Amino acid sequence: WGTAEDVGLGGEPVVAVNEAGDAVVAWGSGEPDGEQAVEASTRRRGGLWRASTIVAPRECRCELSAAAAAVDGTGRAVVSWRRDGLAYWAVSDLNSGELLQLSSLL
Questions:
Q1: CB distance 17 to 43 below 8 Å
Q2: Which of 61, 106, 66, 62 shows the shortest CA–CA distance to 82?
Q3: What is the pLDDT of residue 58?
Q4: What contacts 23, CB < 8 A, 6 or more positions away?
Q5: Side by side, which strands form the sheet with 76-83?
Q6: pTM of the complete model
Q7: Which of 22, 10, 7 is closest to 70 using CA atoms?
Q8: Residue 51 CB neighbour total at 10 angstroms
Q9: pLDDT in tens for each of the 106 residues of the chain?
Q10: Residue 23 exposed, middle or buried by CB count within 10 Å (0-12, 13-18, 19+)
Q11: Is 95 left (phi over 0), alpha (psi -120 to 50) or beta?
Q12: How many CA atoms lie within 13 A of 106 on its CB side?
């Protein structure tokens, strides 16, 4: 184990690591009676954790929770979450940190 790193505040994290050691962690943040968000942070093997990114904006007082995370062999991370019964997902490139796609599943 290495030194623990603070990547953000929140609860109920989901974590994924690929065979190369690249990682993504996502969690729900915000106040229970206030605006909520889903945040995520990524790390390339041997690198530092990137600053957390809000992938599900604080746009409503609704129930948001990170559901799953995955990292593929090309360095793309996927985070999914639920909002008011609908499923959403976002894809990010671990090399650039850029959010590539944001979508919902009906």
A1: no
A2: 66
A3: 65
A4: 15, 16, 17, 42, 43, 71
A5: 64-71, 76-83, 86-93, 99-105
A6: 0.80
A7: 22
A8: 10
A9: 577 777 666 778 899 999 999 999 988 887 767 777 888 889 999 888 888 888 876 666 666 777 789 999 888 899 888 877 778 888 888 887 777 766 766 4
A10: buried
A11: alpha
A12: 0
Residue 45, token pair as written in the block: 């093997």
Residues 6+ apart with CB under 8 A from 84: 62, 63
Q: Cα separation of 76 and 78, whole Å?
A: 7
Per-residue pLDDT, 20 = 93
Do 95 and 75 touch, CB atoms closer than 8 A?
yes
Q: For tokens 């942070």, what's the residue? A: 41
